[in-house]
Amino acid sequence: MAKSVVVLSTLDTKGRETAFLKEQIEHDGCRAILCDIGVVGSPTIKADITREQLAEAGGTPLAELLKDATREKAAPVMVKGAAKLIGEMIKQGEAHAVIGLGGTQGTSSATGVMRQLPYGFPKLMVSTCAAGDTSAFVGIKDIMMMFSVSDILGLNPFMRKVLANAAGAACGMANIDEEKVAASNKPLIGMSNLGVLTKGAEVAVEYLESKGYEVIMFHAVGAGGRAMEQMMREGLITGVFDYAMGEISDELHHALRAGGPERLTVAGKLGLPQVLVPGGSEHIGLFLAEEHVLPEKYKNHMNTFHSPIIAAPRLNPDELVEVAKEIGKRLQYTKGDAVMMLPLRGTSRYGVEGGPLRNPESDKTYYAAIKASLPKTIEVVEKDLGPEDPAFVKECCDRLIGLIEAKKKK
């Protein structure tokens, strides 16, 4: 049976282009389901999912939206409705990929729908905006952005090639044998990591896999931590090895790796087993306007450069106490099934013996503040090891496995 690709487009302004895309999808062996996310103009081709259906599913009839038609008012309704209807189709096995066409407005609406669809479901956005900063469109979801180069306005040899390529990509993803690729009966561990902890992360992956688990690693630079916690909400993750907490330090200091206000709260709220390490949180990540030029505010801090345009100043003891308090505040939701592991020889490769940010006295102050700030429901274990030492990492893994196994027996 042919797989189905949902096409998100404004059929009043992009009817010709959408019709060509539909032809290409069907030429490639899939079924195209046209979903009209337009509001004001009249559709120039027939939709399979009409704008009336989207508006109704979004909670406001189209006639009501048209009484005072503004993008600000209509777009959220259409996005909500499309996400609801496509989500239902996915659950019923009636949709296997989604592709969007758009400029600024169309991209905002189509990716707004895509961000509400499950991880792993193919999402492709053909956009005039894909050559710039796409973070607002992608968010923390696995959305593929394809730059249309020219405006999506009219058909010409180049635009036909772009749309044909997009159709091929969407159909290719829709036809992947998902059961063969993604199926697993092994529990999945979500793990955060930073470059200054990668050797330890590699030990953890190998060790956990040897114990019958699979690991999904997240680069803890803001979006990574948020994506890990979204996967927790979606029920994809069994337990959490939160090995890197630089996202908390950077959140307080408005720096590169800021993880947002919910970071560190989700596992506790969900009751997921978790092992925590304040890895990489002794420093922050600063994006520099000029190579190797440190802002005045941090010139009196210990410092190293992660790259020519990313500085890593170590926070001073008072600043680290504030980070510790914030960690404790966020972990108040954790009522058990959690262990805080403290590597006494430093919190990252930068902070161990020989590292450019080594400061044992400051570490002691930081760890004391963490212990004082944590809820009593979290066990604290101190080890005279570095954060990447295999013995430390393996004990973290063993303790997480113990928490997971104990939870199974409850």
Automatic annotation (TrEMBL):
Domain of life the protein comes from: Bacteria
InterPro entries per UniProt: Tobamovirus_resist_UPF0261, UPF0261, UPF0261_C, UPF0261_N
A Pfam family reported for this protein in Swiss-Prot or TrEMBL: UPF0261
Residues annotated as domain UPF0261: 3-177, 186-402
Protein name: Uncharacterized protein
Taxonomic source organism: Lacipirellula limnantheis
